[in-house]
């Protein structure tokens, strides 16, 4: 220990620097996270200033501690450093270690959740959707638990009465809940969506006028991404009627128009033959769950006769099946010289 004495101030200075970098980045990150909840993008600059202000406070603390560690006659920083060092020595170190542990556990949650098995197959199934949804909800719940428990331990270490604090928070939360009844409804609706397995992460759903894939779900909010890549945040209290397009099985409804000048029986024969060829194609047969239903003529317009076929497929396969069959029937009609409205 005697040999380390000359180097002790430098070791302490290095520890202070590392701690300051961690505190600065963590605090600035939390400020940025808080800024995302503001409704107006113009407020971002204020949160940016708050982040720089936090770094300024951290820098001030570092300068004060360095003045104390190296016994510099740099007032009032040396006095501030002495007070800060005394606080760190009594309660600060334990509090900081509590925050570090909570922060580490918080950052480990995505890694731990990635270890949760979703099934042995990559195929889209209800079991996989259910597991992915529960995993998403569990991840959100763990984040909240770690933040709350870590915060309580931190404030307890500072000498605050946790019982009184929890009681006060409960009273304030009860009062706020009356003003934020939609938030309560969000959690209730989210619970029933999860409990009844109405839909889950990976499902394609329609909510109102929006259709998209469920990217994230928790008890408060459902996040959808539509075909154009836009992300929609839907509070669970506003879901209303939800249409699930990927539940158990799906159906591709394919309509093909032919010309009035075309012999109808021959067109139907070519159309039906192409349906069966497609259904028995080894590359596509695994996606079907039932034989196709050739409806035949289903619509007459001023310019064309509409033919329809129904393909029953596995969930989320109906769009690929529809595209492939339209391509095949277009090529077949061209080869067989079946007239369509554009060629009449």
TrEMBL record:
Annotated keywords: Cell membrane, Membrane, Transmembrane, Transmembrane helix
Entries under Pfam families matching the protein: MS_channel_1st (PF21088), MS_channel_2nd (PF00924), MS_channel_3rd (PF21082)
InterPro entries the UniProt entry points to: LSM_dom_sf (IPR010920), MS_channel_1st (IPR049142), MS_channel_C (IPR049278), MscS_beta-dom_sf (IPR023408), MscS_channel_2nd (IPR006685), MscS_channel_C_sf (IPR011066), MscS_channel_TM-2 (IPR011014), YbiO_bact (IPR045276)
Any one GO CC term of the record: plasma membrane
Top-level taxonomic group: Bacteria
TM regions (residue ranges): 6-25, 46-69, 84-106, 136-156, 162-180
Annotated ranges, domain Mechanosensitive ion channel MscS C-terminal: 253-336
Gene Ontology molecular function, alphabetical: mechanosensitive monoatomic ion channel activity
Domain Mechanosensitive ion channel MscS: 182-240
Record carries keyword DNA damage: no
Localization terms from the record: Cell membrane
Protein name (record): Putative MscS family protein YkuT
